[in-house]
Amino acid sequence: MTISKKIELAAKYKGISLAELARRWGTTPQNLHNRMKVDKFSTAELEAIAAAMGARLEVAFVFEDGEKV
User: Fold this and answer.
1) CB 43 within 8 A of CB 49
2) d(CA 13, CA 15)
3) Which of 13, 25, 29, 57 fits as disulfide partner to 52, beta carbons 3.0 to 4.6 Å?
4) How many Cβ atoms sit within 10 Å of the Cβ of residue 31?
5) DSSP assignment of the chain, as one string?
């Protein structure tokens, strides 16, 4: 699943539109739409988007034995 799709699903879960998410993130709906089209976000941007939704971003490599790095 792409990062853009995860952002879309998270916004739906939170009950906000992508336009509202963009405003909460401090950008325009068009800018968020364009960024989601290319599906390229820095970790700092993803953390800010998560915070705008009242969520926490977790990134990890998870191995077969359950170990997370």
Assistant:
1) no
2) 5
3) 25
4) 12
5) --HHHHHHHHHHHHT--HHHHHHHHTS-HHHHHHHHHHT---HHHHHHHHHHTT-------B-TTS-B-
Residue with tokens 């992508």: 18
State the pTM of this model.
0.86
> What end-to-end distance do the CA atoms of the chain give, in Å?
20
Between CA 33 and CA 39, with CA 11 as vertex, the angle to 5 degrees is 35
Q: Would residue 66 be called left, alpha or beta, if left means φ above 0 and alpha means ψ between -120 and 50 degrees?
A: left
